[in-house]
Amino acid sequence: MIKVPRRLLAAALAFGLAIPPSSTSSRHPASQAPASTASPRYTAADVGFMQGMIPHHAQAVEMAALVPARTAREDLRLLAQRIDVSQRDEIATMQRWLRSRHQMVPNPMAAHEHPDSAGRPMLMPGMLTPQEMAELAKAAGTDFERLFLTRMIKHHEGALIMVAQLFASRGAVQEPEIFGFASDVDADQRAEIARMRTMLNAYSVPKREPQ
Prior knowledge:
Blueprint: H1 6-15, H2 35-38, H3 44-64, H4 74-100, E1 113-115, E2 121-123, H5 130-138, H6 141-168, H7 176-201
Antiparallel strand pairs: 1-2
Helix pairs in contact: 3-4, 3-6, 6-7
């Protein structure tokens, strides 16, 4: 039986998202469905999510790489390190998932765009434009810190939109592996957004003058 985390179940119910149905089991061999029909199949939406999230994560890694040379703030450096490690691990997971299903594996360093319904290049939700990336690379100190946190929050919120779109796709996320991965992405991105908002809000708190 697939266990759905309460947090994700509540969110799914609130937004009308699809949740993989629970499977029943019995010790009696005759009650077992054939393996070919018992295993949920992945869909084009699942494949598209994995293919799109690879360059999306790659841009987060690219953003995190800017941090060490532009700030001395230790908590921001640690955040960037966590983003770098987690996003690289998830990119590797997505690449393995696609290869094992004989699907196209996008180059993480390729353009972070995908075509819209008219075939025109379009950034995925939350992704920075080349101009925004250039502005971030030019900034330093407090200006960089504020800009990085603001734009990484936007970037993470885009990932949440992609997860929500996946769950809203008919027949998607029925395969346990894709369901677990998408659920983890949702939980991790939400946790990091909350942390970054706390860090960003600290800039607006006036410092007390020494007595």
